[in-house]
Write a structure and sequence with these properties.
Blueprint: H1 28-35, H2 45-48, H3 75-100, H4 106-127, H5 139-163, H6 168-175, H7 178-188, H8 195-211, H9 220-245, H10 252-273, H11 276-285, H12 291-318, H13 320-341, H14 348-377
Helix pairs in contact: 1-6, 1-13, 3-12, 3-13, 4-10, 4-12, 5-9, 5-10, 6-8, 6-9, 7-9, 7-13, 8-13, 8-14, 9-12, 9-13, 10-12, 12-13, 13-14
Length: 378
Amino acid sequence: MATSPPPTDSASSPRLSSQSQSPDLRSPASFAESFEMDETSPSAGLLSQMDDAEKQTPVEAQIAKNDAHEYTITTRTKMLCLSLYFLMNLGLTLYNKAVLGRFNFPWLLTTFHTTSAALGCWTIMLVAPDQLKLSHVGRQEQMVLAAFSVLFTVNIAISNVSLAMVSVPFHQIVRSTTPVATVLIYRWLGRSYGTMTYISLIPIVAGVGLSTYGDYYATLLGASLTFLGVFLAALKTVATNKLLTGSLKLPALELLLRMSPLAAVQSLLWATATGEVSAFLKFTAEGNLGTYLILALLGNGFLAFLLNVTSFQTNKLAGALTLSVCGNVKQILTVVLGTVLFDVAVGTMNAVGMIVALGGAAWYSKVELDVKRAGARS
């Protein structure tokens, strides 16, 4: 789910987010991490229960009849969805940063985001029932959806815990390998990409690593949890795509409606366990929850709902791997925005990394476009 879950920065308390701890935002890695809101134990059964509607063989061998769902979508539609996703994603991360400066409860903010998503879907179902009709879902499918909501929450929790044990640059460079993890999961499930697609991922991952270059530090447990977080993030993206395009073929709004209430409850339980609920009650008793902050939270929740819908729809139309690549590009654009809006210092190596990553993203886009054209000709 694209609700912006706030991973914490490297600090003693695992509940505090990177935004709320005021890290040194002069570093590109710290600045990118302060904006990362990705942005969550299911097993292989979660994926195996959903038929993969996406079978792509390498371009050189065969494309015609086994194209993935994303290759049936027009380029214009994909670009529109990706543009909306980028704008809303960057907008929400900026908004989250501003809100968390006054509302230092990241897990409660995640609870509010998921609750807003549920309320938004329910409102659409009541006001425009033709736009959101619930499909018949059996007991087995309900268990799959419940496991998916757990995957979302576990992904956030692992990211939170690992950040307290590793440096921000280490966390960023490991998270940049999410597209690689996505490819490996697909390979395990029987889907392969063309050779050029694999090669185009190299500059994307390497570029993000260079752009967030800094002091690397990690405990063995912290490094293990960080890599686990990458796997879970990729698994979540692939699982989302399969729920939208596999045997269930749920519409984006319906998947959001079925998943968000469960995720909201789980986030609230986590907020309670980490002490955020108690701190919030004290915060409210001291009169800090004013009208301005309430309005800001309402606007934040509405934007989170829009981003959730856009993220799910983009995943469905553009594909899980493309969405993972977008996550890397978002890190680069976040640092670029930081240099303009917040005077973030960028060194030569960081700048080279940004250029390499953006060039890799352009190359990846061309490769995917070539695959689509080759499939259309065959």
